[in-house]
Design brief:
Helix content is 34%, strand content 17%. The protein is α/β, with parallel strands linked by helices. Helix 3 crosses helix 5, helix 5 runs parallel beside helix 7 and helix 7 packs parallel to helix 8. Strands 3-4-5-8-9-10-11-12 form an eight-stranded parallel β-sheet. A four-stranded antiparallel β-sheet has the order 13-14-15-16, covered by helices on one side. A two-stranded antiparallel sheet has the order 1-2. It has one domain: TIM Barrel (Alpha-Beta Barrel). The longest helix has 26 residues.
Length: 404
């Protein structure tokens, strides 16, 4: 009886290690298709069109834009050396090339020239009519009156009776079926003409909060939007939805390949929220979806004068290096296969995409097991990787990543 009990304990203790050995064996048999283990012991099955994923260093996702210009050769090389998965932001290259889809096209070609298998996403918004692409250029106060066929796609503010806007940027009306058809065709056109591998779609809400009586209808229409987009793009294209794990995106979630968890302030990285999101990362992996865990701190910082861009960037870079360990630990504790880490203080190229964080290039290695909570009553968590030990207290916001 004692021997039998001892064997059971040993088997449970080393179950994950045995699974890891199985993964190594299977990987050697399938050299072109690495086998990746989810933290619950199941296997992640990536789609053929997904980017390359590796635990060799911290898996990174980059998303950036510069409205004034395209990237230099050295900037392309810097980013390409750190990731296989990027998105070109909403207004990139607008002032230099005249349209954002041309900026995306330029960068997709530049990156694929030196890294043919890199996956590049085209940005489009499902709620705000940003006027940076040629497809959206007439959604402006100066021109919209001349385009009644486009104006009917926009949301009317019920209180003012005028087009709903934020700093002269209009809002799409997802309840309009003609708009949905136009939007799907437009995004697909942008992906094709830019030579990108899919689309990053921003905003999941459809402005339901402006018409609470129609909330469920709005959310269902949002789901229909993504369903039709996925169908239009066809097989082999990635659809990434920003914050698509939120409850309001419940009809969107079935139709995406990836979701971003966007954190732009400490209000979104509370101990309760991080714990929930680690479960969401596991859920995404089990459903064969990718995750981008994006951390920033731009809304936590009070810098009086941001007009001095050089001083502002220097101060923010200093803060980003000081804060990296906590955010990296927050990612590593819950990371799964095809979970990516993104870090910076905004979406502009100058907001961290060109900062060299040496820790992100250190050997990481595969996770040895799922994270452990040191005590059910405490907010301390640990996790072991092949070349790193991670400890974090999400209540005190202390952390330590020990590299070896």
């Amino acid at each position: 009886m004692y021997l039998e009990t001892t064997l059971i304990i040993i088997m449970n203790e080393y179950k994950f290690i045995c699974l890891l050995l199985l993964v190594v064996f299977m990987s050697s048999c399938k050299k072109n298709k690495p086998v990746l283990l989810i933290s619950d012991g199941t296997i992640f099955e990536p789609k053929e069109y997904f980017p390359k994923f590796s635990w060799s260093t911290t898996p990174m996702y980059y998303m950036f834009g510069d409205r004034d210009r395209v990237l230099s050769v050295d900037e392309v090389a810097f980013i390409a050396a750190r990731t296989d998965f990027i998105c070109i932001e909403k207004s990139h290259g607008y002032n230099e090339l005249g349209a954002a889809e041309l900026g995306a096209k330029h960068e997709a070609a530049a990156f694929k020239k030196i890294k043919p298998n890199i996956k590049v996403l085209f940005y489009f918004n499902s709620a705000w009519a940003w006027p940076f692409t040629s497809y959206n250029k007439n959604f402006t106060p100066e021109t919209i009156g001349n385009y009644p066929e486009l104006k009917k796609f926009l949301l009317i503010n019920q209180e003012t009776g005028e087009l709903n806007d934020r700093r002269n940027t209009y809002s799409f009306d997802v309840l309009n079926p003609e708009f949905r058809k136009w939007w799907v065709e437009t995004v697909a056109k942008g992906v094709e003409e830019s030579g990108c591998d899919g689309a990053f779609i921003d905003q999941m809400h459809g402005f339901f909060f402006l018409r609470e009586d129609k909330k469920e209808e709005v959310l269902k229409a949002q789901g229909e939007l993504f369903k039709e987009l996925k169908k239009k793009l066809g097989p082999g294209k990635i659809v990434l939805g920003n914050n698509a794990n939120d409850d309001i995106a419940k009809y969107v979630y079935p139709h995406i390949d990836a979701t971003m968890f966007e954190h732009y302030s400490s209000k979104l990285t509370t101990k309760e929220n991080l714990l929930k999101e680690w479960d969401d990362l596991l859920k995404n992996a089990k459903e064969g979806k990718m995750s981008v865990y994006r951390f920033g701190f731009e809304h936590d910082i009070d810098i009086p004068d941001r007009t001095d861009k050089k001083t502002y960037s220097k101060e923010m870079e200093k803060l980003s290096k000081e804060n990296l360990e906590f955010y990296l630990a927050s990612y590593l504790i819950g990371a799964q296969p095809y979970s990516y880490f993104q870090y910076g203080w905004g979406w502009n190229l100058s907001d961290g995409s060109l900062v060299d964080h040496s820790d992100l290039l250190k050997p990481l290695g595969v996770p040895k097991a799922a994270y452990k909570r040191t005590d059910p009553e405490r907010w301390e968590f640990t996790r072991e990787f092949e070349h790193a030990s991670v400890w974090i207290n999400t209540e005190s916001r202390e952390s330590k990543v020990t590299w070896r």
